[in-house]
Amino acid sequence: MSSHREAPEISKDPVADSTDVYAFVSPDQPGTVTLIANYIPLQGPAAGPNFYEFGDDVLYEIHVDNNGDGQADISYQFRFTTKVADPGTFLYNTGPITSLDSTSWNRRQTYSLTQVSNGRATTLGTNLACPPCNIGPLSTPNYPDLAAAAVHWLAGGVTAFAGQRAEAFYVDLGAIFDLGDLRPFENLHAQYGMNVFSGPGAGVNATNHLNVHSLAIQVPISTITKSGHPSIGVWTTASRQMASVWDSDTGTTTHSGPWHQVSRLGNPLVNEVLIPLGEKDRWNSLPPSDDKQFVSYVTKPGLAALLPALYPGVFPNLAALTASRADLQAILLTGIPAGIIPGFQNFTGDVLADMLRLNTSIPPTPADKQSIYGLLGSDVGGFPNGRRITDDVVAIELRAIAGVTYALVAKYTPDAAANKLTDGLTPASVAASQLSKFPYLGVPYSGFDNPS
Amino acid sequence: MPRQDAEHPVTPGQESPRTVSRRSLLQGAAGAGAAGLAVTTLGAAALGVSATPAHAAPAHAADSTGQAAGDPIVVHVRDARTGDIEVFSGTTKTRLRDRDLAARISRATRQGR
Predict the structure, then answer these.
(1) Which site among A69, A235, A256, A262 would you substitute to test the B interface, given the most B Cβ atoms closer than 10 Å to its Cβ?
(2) Among A434, A388, A288, A367, CA closest to A375
């Protein structure tokens, strides 16, 4: 979650596995949008001797659709290159890494960033430094400043960062995938007659103290939107070349052929909990413009049928709700049209496409007025209007699937429990603090201190 | 690795028609000794094997040659009986239908065992 190891094939290829996408109007730079795509899930910080890194053989992209056709109008392409200064040592670093050009840093990555817009490619930067992973006080002293030096200001008002960050997504993976247990309500779970839980429990953040690798860009709103159309669709993809052959002479893999998409992520949890197991790998290989074929999994979500079965008597209205879920279709596949929520819309058109939709004309909500429940908390600056780092997308989507948002499009009374659903976690369940400026995601946990 | 810069932007899903050296494929196949999959670094001097793209795939970036000198060539014989062959090089895939070539590659892999 929200897309960590969400499909059988990509779960075996973590370097190319997208985990979360964020898109929001930058709170400290409101003329810009920040787009973040995270990869390489569930990184234990103590990862030596070979610390996590992006794949040199992976094409990473962040896409923007600004005309509602579910196809990329602008793509930001990240390509990485790894260099080993001294292959004669087993060490990642031979002394403290105090700067990005430190000679003590033995294995480093750089990247190129290319913007492809309507078939025209523009190099935004080459040989851009990534920071090292956060190892510990001896190897990476003053890590926050070291990583901050890897923020690059590029042509066209683009700011970029690529490197390790603290996982900001919070979710109780252990309970949710134990047959839909939500610990705060687990005494209401059917428990298959085993009576394991006698009372409510507290949520456990399974992703706490873990790291990810982030691709982050901040771009002027004017460069990614079309005049009069402030709503954009955002998603990320990772692609690999189609043919790989292990070269036993060199001990390396040869890659050839066209790029083939192996990972995709727009809205959180779509492939994770809506797309069935037999379709997940194929879904990952397709563009959002092909999502019409998957619409029934959104409008008739299996999870909506599961909730009344797993929690007997708790969701009687949801159990009786058999209509197609136009609310979920709008939230996830078209954007919410005008007239549904007063003063708000992020509709991008009739094309059914899973994209994280952001109405860029809506200013950031001040921190003290934000709700982690986003639109469900009457905060139009949060998910599903884009996604901020602290938004509780698990609770928002659970509540939406449980019927809360169906009342927006039809006469329906949601079950009392629907608007209380949560896995028991909040942003306070994340140990790392969010930064107040780009790239916003917190400093990664160090291997020295984690696990402690 | 193939070139992937602004002049040659990467294009997911892109396939382009290309001619491939029958001789280089066979030499590569014999050297690789793999059943159905061969790799060669001999390059792709065009010697007249007709090739067509398997299907047109959407590309959102500008066209590119997709191949640099010295790039390896990977051959996948999908079905030796029908001569269905895929050739991967640079960032391109070429689909061939050549029963004779497929048979010769198959023989070469058997000889390599």
Answers:
(1) A256
(2) A388
